[in-house]
Amino acid sequence: METIGVVGLGTMGLGIAQVYASAGFVVIATDAHVPARETARTRMAEALDARVSAGKLTKEARDATLANLQIVESVQGFAPCTLVIEAIVERLDAKQSLFAALEAVLAPTAILATNTSSIPVAQIAAPASHPDRILALHFFNPPTAMKLVELAPHAGTSATTITRARALTEAAGKTVIQCPDRPGFIVNRCARPFYGEALALLQEGHSATEIDAAMLARGYRLGPFALIDLIGADINLAATEGLSVAMQNHPRYHVFPALKAQVASGKLGRKSAEGFIFPAKVTPAPNPAIAQRIEATLINEAAWLLHEGGTDAQGIDTAMKLGLNFPLGPFEILTHYGKPAVRATLQALAAKAPDALRPRYAPAPYLTE
Question: Which of 58, 81, 112, 138 is the most exposed place for a label (fewest CB within 10 A)?
Answer without folding.
Answer: 58
